[in-house]
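re: that chain from earlier
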Amino acid sequence: MEHTMKVIARIHSDFPEKFGIPRQSGLVPALRAKIVFEPEYRNPDALRGIEGFSHLWLIWQFSAAVRDTWSPTVRPPRLGGNERVGVFATRSPFRPNAIGLSCVKLESVQHEDGFGDVLIVSGADLMDGTPIYDIKPYLPYADAHPEALGGFAPSPKETIEVKSPPELLQKLPEGRREALLGVLAQDPRPQYQNDPERVYGMNFGGWDVKFRVKDGVLTVLSLAETEHQ
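^ sequence. v structure.
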């Protein structure tokens, strides 16, 4: 039996591509994103009372990973990309249903002409344009489990040192500098790649960022505005 889910909103973030997106939500609190509801759901009553919650759950689609087939096992990057584990023991996008779950912080609710009330959130790990199926409040008494076990991913990967010439960072709008540094400190490279001479590139908020990682230090090489700012 087929079931249809309705897209209620889309998120607008600084990541037009998958590369560079934090591997989990909340790892880079400085990241800001905007949730814009589809016209059918731009009813302010649907958000009544949401300001009372500091965090929200987003249920969304891995829109760049939708496929007709699935595999019962996947290779998690945290295990070097070589060892297979069950897909339901991972947060891999390659699932029978390409559904994602993220916890974000609600910064504010703003009214924008033409779009109605939008949500400004921080810490999101979603690509720009990602369709959102539902939004639910995070409940600390029910959703927080400090004693929980983390399996093969018990804690976030340690951040790395980031070096960037000041004149490069100054090109960015001030509000995006901390966010970019936070993203780079997560080491966006695939975890099985460690070529110290390789130059990596990622798009972030309308900027093309080039960097290299050597001896545990990520060095920003260039920042250039993309053509479609």
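The chain has a mean pLDDT of 92.
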